[in-house]
């Protein structure tokens, strides 16, 4: 009984959808970000709004430039986007935290730049 209670308490069987939010691919400089509203099934990526077609509870499809993409919710803080039409695009995006809203920029007087 204790084991099953612990499993429910940790969110293993969480049935809701994640809060809407901004997710960023941090390996790009500056980070490339997108906005997902899971409840309304809308993705805003590169200034374009895409309707999401729900495949499973946390898997969605959308079309971009005639290619079929899949958006998968890995955790409430991480999503993965794959291009299903070609095999050259598979990226993870991390939820943007409030305290990191802006990417710091160096000034022209920064002496550490060469």
Estimate the helix proportion, in percent.
under 10%
Helix and strand string, N-terminal first? HEEEEEEEEE
- The overall pLDDT, averaged over residues, is 79
Overall strand count: 9
The structure class reads: mainly beta
Number of helices: 1
Radius of gyration: 18 Å
Q: Which blocks of ≥5 consecutive residues have pLDDT under 50?
A: 1-12, 100-114
Strand content: 35-45%
Largest sheet: number of strands, sense, barrel closure:
9 strands, antiparallel
Outline? globular
Strand order of the largest sheet: 4-3-2-1-9-8-7-6-5
Q: What is the rounded distance between the termini?
A: 62 Å
Write structural notes for this entry.
Strand 1 (21-25) and strand 2 form a beta hairpin. The protein has one helix at residues 2-9, and strands spanning 21-25, 32-37, 42-45, 48-51, 53-56, 59-64, 67-75, 78-83, 90-95. The protein is mainly beta. Residues 1-12 and 100-114 have low confidence and may be disordered. The termini are far apart. Strands 4-3-2-1-9-8-7-6-5 form a nine-stranded antiparallel β-sheet, with no helix packed on it. It is 7% helix and 44% strand. It has one helix and nine strands, in the order αβββββββββ. The relative contact order is 0.15.
